[in-house]
Amino acid sequence: MIRRFGAAYVQSRGAKLLPGEERAMQDLLACRTWRLGYHIGECLECGEVQISYNSCRNRHCPKCQGAARASWLAARQAELLPVSYFHVVFTLPPEIAKLAFGNRRVLYDLLFQCAAETLLEVAADPKHLGAQIGVLAVLHTWGQNLNHHPHVHCVVPGGGLNEDESEWVACRKNFFLPVKVLSRKFRGKFLAHLKAKHANGELKLTGSLAPLSHPAAFGRLLTQAYRKEWVVYSKPPFGGPEQTLKYLARYTHRVAISNARLVEVSDSGVTFTYKDYAAGAVRKTMTLSGVEFLRRFFTHLLPKGFVHIRSYGLLANRHRQSKLALCCEILSQQRDEEADLFARPCEIAEAQHAESSESEPRCRCCGGHLRGLDYRPRPSREMLWALPWPWDTS
Questions:
Q1: 196: burial class by Cβ within 10 Å (0-12, 13-18, 19+)?
Q2: Does the pLDDT at position 221 exceed 50?
Q3: Rounded (5°) CA angle 151-138-304
Q4: pLDDT at 360
Q5: How far apart are CA 304 and CA 288, in angstroms?
Q6: Which residues of 210-219 are buried (b: 16+ CB within 10 A; e: fewer)?
Q7: Can you tell me the distance from the alpha carbon of 285 to that of 290, in angstroms, rounded to the nearest whole number?
C-alpha cells in the first residue's frame, strides 16, 4: 500500500507529516525486503534452502510484533498473581480526543495518569474495596474503522493489599468496582488537569483548534464534555494467570490494523474488515481510498520514545518485586475460593513457548529448524535513507 499510494499520500499532506511519519513509512516499506538485508538458511530435516529478509522492528509494523510480544510476556510471566483478573477500559469522548491531534504526548500521558489514579483511588476507598491494587495499562488510539479513538485498556488483579499490608482483600466474584463511580471520577480528574494545562499554555491549538486558544471557548468545551457520561466499562474477569497471559498476548503489542483484516488492495482503494459494535459486533467490510487509508493508519503513530504500556500501584516499577512477593506470600497462606486458580508451571511455560516460537526461523516446507548459511547485514539508518523511495520527488 505504501509502495502504491505513498507518493500520493505525501503529496496530499505536504509539509504536515507527523514527526516520525516518513521514517515509519520507510521502515514498513522496507520490512522483509532486500533493503534490510537477509539470512539464508538450510533446513536440517528436508534440506530446503530458503532466504529470509530482515524485519524492520518498527513498533507500528503489523508484521514485527511477534518477537517483541514474546519477550514482554516472558518478563511478565512471573508477575501474575493466582487470582482472577479484570479488564477495565477508559475512553475519551470525541470532542476531547480531537485535542490530541496536536498534543499527542500531553493528552495520552494525561489519559494514562487519570485512568490509573481513578482506579487506585476508588479501590482504596473502604466503601468499595479498601485495598491497594495493581494496574497494567495499555494505550490504543484506534477504533475498528481506523478512526481516532484513544482509550486505555487496564488489566487489574481482582483484589489488593489492605492498608497495613497484612491481608489480601478480594473483590466480589464477578464484580470489581462500580463503573459509574469510575466514569465520573475519571471525567472530573481529566477535565481538571486539562483546564490547568490550557491555563499554563501546555496545549498547542492551531488550525481548526485555534478558536479554543481563547479561555471562554475552551471553557465551553469543558462544560460540554462535563455534561456527558464518559464511557468506562468493565469486562468479565479472565480467570487465572493462564487466561490473562493469553489476553495480554492479543492486546499489548497491537497496531491499528493487522494484515489478516485486509481483503483487497487495488488502484481504487483498500478494502478491509471491521466489527460494527453499534450493530452488535457484526463483521463488515469497508473500502477507503489509498490516501485516506494511509492517513487513518498514520494517525495512530505514537510520539518517539512514548511508553504505551505502563504499570501502577502494586505493579509500579519502583517496588513491583517486593510488593508481588508479599502478595504471593499472603495469598499462599489464605485458603480461599480462588486457590484453584494457581496455574501449573508447565501450562504457563507452554503458553510462553507458543508465543516465542512465532519468531523462531522455521522451514516453510516441513517446519523444521534452519541452519544458517549466509547473510547480508542490516544497513545503517543513513544508508537506508539514501535509497530511493516512491514518494521521493527530489
A1: exposed
A2: yes
A3: 95
A4: 64
A5: 28
A6: eebeeeeebe
A7: 15
